[in-house]
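Kindly draft a sequence, keeping tokens residue-aligned:
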Amino acid sequence: MLSFNFNSKDSFNDYGIYVLQNPSILSPKRRVTTSNIPGRNSSLRYDENTYEDITISVSCGVKDDSIADKIDDIKGWLIGAGESELIFDFQPNKKYIAQVVNSIDFAQSIEIFSEFPIIFNCRPFKYAVDNSIITMTSSGIINNIGTIYSEPKIKVFGSGDINLNIGSQVINLIGINNYIIIDSVLQDCYDDNGSNLNNKMNGEFPIFNAGDNNISWTGSVTKLEITPNWRWL
């Protein structure tokens, strides 16, 4: 029986909702702006290197009529959760960051059809369920197993001025006292207490391109703790 996990709840085991068929999942649309210039062949393109959200419609059925007693709980689970992790059991090692965007009339659906759609609005990418921290104490290579660059969170333990090299990227860290967290998703630097440390970094926030990424540094560094945030189109 196909099911999905959303907001840490299993649709079938917790609510008796199963997936009728694997949903059709489209690749995200890349943001490219085009403009036509008189006298010029083709169009002028500006590629933002960013992607639109995707929509996943999941056709669902119910195990039995007992679901009628759980309607309020189901609404709270699906609609009240806001943006949460969505994992389909046919691909348990990858997840979406999703939110339910449709209004579902459970009572009418169950009485007349015994099936209903759940529509998720998702961020453009699939992410690795296993996002374990990678620890580095010396220079080396990190292989991005995804199909698109990732935006890691890197906790740099060290002191003083540090140059962190990731492929062709150079991140300058200034006057580090014990450690600094570089969060490429939030585009922010901070410590465990949430103190803003953006003034201690120069350069672009690091990314890991698909494939191998050479990591090295100069300065006093004891280790890196890297949350890689692998993702797929």
Remarks:
- The radius of gyration is 23 Å.
- The chain has a mean pLDDT of 90.
